[in-house]
Amino acid sequence: MDTAVIYSNGSQECERIGMLLKSLDGEYHEYLLGVDFSDRQFRAEFGSEAEYPQVAIGKEHIGGMKDTLRYLVCKEII
């Protein structure tokens, strides 16, 4: 699996997706709200309705937690 990027606000969902990726021996980098980006930047990138976490794998934006789980199942990673 390509390296993943998680855009996180530090919530439990963000921690869970990070733990899942780590358990799959996947590498990931976490960008944290208030440290690496602002809420304004997040909304400009992902839209006003976007929820945390947002995940990209390789060069592909996957989406939120449910979208990421669907992606991993469809790619037979989990």
Topology of this structure?
Blueprint: E1 4-8, H1 12-23, E2 28-32, H2 39-46, E3 54-57, E4 60-63, H3 65-74
Keywords, please?
globular, alpha+beta, 78 residues, 3 helices, 4-stranded mixed beta sheet
In summary, what is this structure?
The protein is an alpha+beta fold and 78 residues long.
Q: How would you portray this structure in words?
A:
- The chain has a 4-stranded mixed sheet with strand order 2-1-3-4, with helices on one face.
- 38% of the residues lie in helices and 23% in strands.
- The chain has 3 helices and 4 strands, in the order E-H-E-H-E-E-H.
- The protein is globular, with a radius of gyration of 12 Å.
- A hairpin with a 2-residue loop joins strand 3 and strand 4 (60-63).
- The protein is of the alpha+beta class and 78 residues long.
- It has helices at 12-23, 39-46, 65-74; strands at residues 4-8, 28-32, 54-57, 60-63.
